[in-house]
Amino acid sequence: MSITESLLAYLVAVTVLTLTPGMDTALILRTASVESRAQAMKAALGISTGCLLWGAAVALGLGALLAVSELAFTILKYCGAAYLCWLGLGMLLKPRTSLAIEDTAGSKGRPNWFIKGLLGNLLNPKIGIFYVSFLPQFIPQGQPLALWTFGLVGVHVAIGLVWAATLIGVTRQLGRFLKHRTVIQWLDRATGSIFLVFATKLALSRQ
Prior knowledge:
Layout: H1 3-19, H2 23-34, H3 37-68, H4 70-93, H5 113-122, H6 125-134, H7 145-169, H8 171-178, H9 181-203
């Protein structure tokens, strides 16, 4: 794939993944509804910072490892493909019917929503595993792995912030829509299908 083709494919894939409701969406919706828009934006910035830190770790480790080891590339390729396939089948065959939102309104004091969003992502190793599994297939052959990996994470974060701002701006209307059973099931199945496509593509890729 050319650089343009890689970027376009990545933009489509990561946009769909970002729009799929998950824990981050739940946290932002809950905070905007119960606390305030300002607090919800702090949560979104914390989430984004967590993604960037994971991206930096993956970019440095992934670039150094894959640049010197064909065996490591092969192992990572098949493990990543298996992981994406497992995620895809789970979302396709057993889509969620509701978006669980943790209610912490009764907790004492006002939580630091930036820290809450940051730790929610930083302490979740699945994000690092996902980046390792998902991003390599969008890096054109011959391009610097570390630079491209972190750049793709940056694109993901930018799209995530735009989506978070949209959620915060229209919390009530969009929140009700995203929590609808049919919408959640459709988005899960669409995301699961995308995961399966990219799992196949990753398994067939070469260093």
